[in-house]
Amino acid sequence: MPKVEKTHGNQVVIRGAGRFERGDRKDVSDEMAEYLTAARGDFAVVDEDGGVSEAEDDTDDESEAEAFDTNAWLGQDYTDREDRVRSGDVDDKLELIAESETSNTVLDAIGERRAELED
After folding, report:
1. Does the N-terminal or the C-terminal CB of the chain have fewer CB atoms within 10 Å?
2. CB-based burial of residue 85 (10 Å sphere; 0-12 exposed, 13-18 middle, 19+ buried)?
3. Is 33 helix (H, G, I), strand (E, B) or coil?
4. H-helix or E-strand containing 20?
5. Would you call 108 helix, strand, or coil by DSSP?
6. How many CA atoms lie within 13 A of 67 on its CB side?
7. Of 67, 71, 62, nearest to 100 (Cα)?
C-alpha cells in the first residue's frame, strides 16, 4: 500500500480515506493514491525513505485535460469543491473545472477566484 501526504490546502475529509490536514500521512490503496495525487493534486506519494515525491509538471494542456478526472471531481461534495477553489488548490485547473462543474455555488467560487487572480 502506498503512503500519501497532504501537501497543500486546508483540512479535507475523503470518503474511504478519512480526514487529512496538511502534513498528515496515511497508507491508502493504489486506487486512492492515484485519485489523491492525480485528480485532486493536493497530495503526494511518500517514498520508502520517507521523502515526498510530487508529480512532475511537464504536461501540456491536452494531457493535463486528460489527467483531470471529471468524475472524481464531481464525486466530491460540492462544499469540498468550493473550498478547494476558494483556497487556490486548483488554480491551474479552473478552466477544466468550469467546463464540467454542475454546482452554481462552485461556479460562483470559480468566478470569484478568477477575479482575485486578475487583481
Report:
1. C
2. buried
3. helix
4. strand 18-20
5. helix
6. 19
7. 71
Dihedral sign, CA of 108, 113, 115, 116? Answer: positive
* Long-range Cβ contacts of 77-82 (<8 Å, 24+ apart): 78/103, 78/105, 78/106, 79/105, 80/12, 80/13, 81/106, 82/106, 82/109
How many CB atoms neighbour CB 73 within 10 A? 21
| DSSP string covering 50-69 | S-EEPPP----HHHHHHHS-
Percent of the chain with pLDDT over 70: 84
pLDDT tens digit string along 55-95?
Answer: 444 444 444 545 678 888 998 999 999 999 999 999 999 98
In a 13 Å sphere around the CA of 73, the CA atoms on its Cβ side amount to: 26
Report the relative pairing of strands 43-46 and 3-6 from DSSP bridges: antiparallel
Nearest-angstrom CA–CA distance, 47 and 92:
25
